[in-house]
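Section 5: illustrative case.
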């Protein structure tokens, strides 16, 4: 596996700490990303996204969705009370506890979460502040009398 030194990026730039940290986190990953629970990320509009996570066997009360320090954290803990009374001949539906983190970009907000039919749907929307949106600058016409006076 390749190793990249991001020290020159820290020395030559100011304010890009978040990008460098993200690159460092991605590059230092050992390649064994957790596969449970399976999920989809879809783009539903220009600035809207949806994360769908397969959470079969969990109730809405056993699921938690939290935004903390720029990350979306989805976790689940199964209540043990129900499991003691059952005897399984085959158990193919995993209901083990999990925690899944998604790093959110700047200005991405969680707008809602819905649990239905064994799926947890989390809706996200990117809202760009007015100060960062492109804007047209009006060009004023110069006063010809002022220009002539300054030429003489």
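Designed sequence:
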């Amino acid at each position: 596996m390749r190793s990249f030194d991001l020290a020159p990026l820290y020395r030559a730039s100011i304010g890009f700490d978040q990008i460098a940290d993200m690159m460092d986190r991605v590059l230092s990953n050992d390649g064994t990303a957790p596969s449970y629970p399976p999920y989809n990320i879809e783009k539903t509009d220009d600035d809207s996204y949806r994360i769908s996570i397969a959470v079969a066997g969990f109730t809405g009360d056993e699921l938690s969705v939290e935004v903390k320090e720029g990350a979306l954290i989805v976790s689940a803990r199964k209540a043990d009370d129900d499991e003691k009374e059952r005897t399984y001949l085959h158990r193919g539906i995993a209901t083990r506890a999990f925690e899944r983190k998604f790093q959110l970009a700047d200005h991405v907000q969680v707008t809602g979460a819905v649990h239905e039919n064994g799926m947890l749907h989390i809706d996200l929307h990117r809202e760009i502040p007015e100060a960062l949106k492109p804007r047209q600058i009006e060009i004023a016409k110069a006063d010809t009398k002022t220009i002539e006076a300054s030429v003489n």
